[in-house]
Amino acid sequence: MTTQRPFAFQVLPLAGLPDDARHASRHLSDMRGYYADQASFEAMLADGDILLYEVYEIPRPEQEGELLHGLSILHAGKVGDEYFMTKGHFHQVLETAEVYYCLQGKGMMVMETPEGEWAAEELKPGRVLYVPPRWAHRSVNTASQDLITFYVYPAYAGHDYGTIETRGFHAQVIERDGAPLVIDNPRWQTLTRDARRQT
């Protein structure tokens, strides 16, 4: 959709999305190395390459002045005691922000800066989350139904998945005694120590 005229669409139900919305999906196999419990990951993958999350994005020119926006649908489940999550990313243009509006479900947004400062915010229907420039972000579904969020960000921002793939996030969200718990990610700490040794 490259029209310069205003347009509108219905986010719920999902059938109201424009026909030209771009659709991306991530299966369990796409998340190899992201979960702490690799034995549970491999056992689950052996039973089938299930769908973890989907993104529907309204196409706009990827240039300054435009906004990319769409829906993220993160399905419910766990790998070991770690909830299903998105890959997470920085923006390639680091000094760009993003806004999320939770439409359905419950979860958390785990965020951090390149320097390691981190935060985790609750997602629930009606809650708006502002992710400032320089903050990587990852959605985590902590409930038993789909976590659906509407998002919008500058169209020229781009995505940097590689940094997170290499070092992970400082925090991870696990289930403990039937409730979500944010803990330190040992993998992040290990990679940080290794990086220090090499300097």
Tell me about this structure:
Helix content is 14%, strand content 38%. The chain is globular. The longest helix is centred in the C-terminal third of the chain and has 13 residues. It has 199 residues and is mainly β. The strands form 4 sheets. Strands 1-2-3-11-6-9 form a 6-stranded antiparallel beta sheet, with no helix packed on it. A 3-stranded antiparallel beta sheet has the order 8-7-10, with no helix packed on it. It has 3 helices and 13 strands; from the N terminus they run E-H-E-E-E-E-E-E-E-E-E-E-H-E-E-H. The chain has one domain: Jelly Rolls.
Report the principal-axis shape.
globular
The tally of structural domains comes to: 1
Q: Please tell me the overall pLDDT.
A: 90
Q: So what's the oligomer here?
A: single chain
| CATH topology-level fold name | Jelly Rolls
Task: Estimate the strand proportion.
Answer: 35-45%
Please write the CATH class name. Answer: Mainly Beta
Mind telling me the CATH superfamily name? Answer: Jelly Rolls
Provide the spatial order of strands within the biggest beta sheet. Answer: 1-2-3-11-6-9
Largest sheet: 6 strands, antiparallel
Task: State the helical fraction.
Answer: 10-25%
Give me the secondary-structure category: mainly beta
Low-confidence stretches: 193-199
The H-and-E topology, N to C, reads as: EHEEEEEEEEEEHEEH
Tally of DSSP helical segments: 3
Number of distinct beta strands: 13
- CATH architecture title: Sandwich
